[in-house]
Design a protein that fits this description.
The chain contains 4 helices and no strands. By secondary structure, the protein is mainly α. It has one domain (about 5-84): Non-ribosomal Peptide Synthetase Peptidyl Carrier Protein, Chain A (Orthogonal Bundle), CATH 1.10.1200.10. Helix 1 (about 5-15) packs across helix 2 and helix 1 (about 5-15) crosses helix 4 (about 70-84).
């Protein structure tokens, strides 16, 4: 899977599920501060990641995810480790 696919899936989910404005969706956007996501929203994100990308999200790994780019990289890296 290429990173652009990860970005597209995540961005579409965030726009649809959380009714975010597409202009808000930037790699440097902080999930909590800039996008206004709360702890329960992270559960929804984890469920979508597990469903779409077929891997179990581990809470301790998600603690380092602060920006959208962190989220993209986490998913991309995990998917590619799983397939190699």
């Amino acid at each position: 899977m290429v990173k652009e696919e990860v970005i597209k899936i995540i961005n579409n989910f965030l726009i649809e599920e959380f009714e975010l404005n597409p202009e808000q969706i930037k790699p440097e956007a902080r999930l909590k501060d800039d996008l206004g996501l709360e702890s329960l929203d992270f559960v929804d994100i984890a469920v979508v990641v597990e469903k779409e990308f077929k891997f179990k999200v581990k809470g301790e790994e998600m603690t380092e995810v602060r920006t959208l780019d962190d989220l993209y990289n986490y998913i991309f890296k995990t998917v590619n480790l799983k397939t190699n």
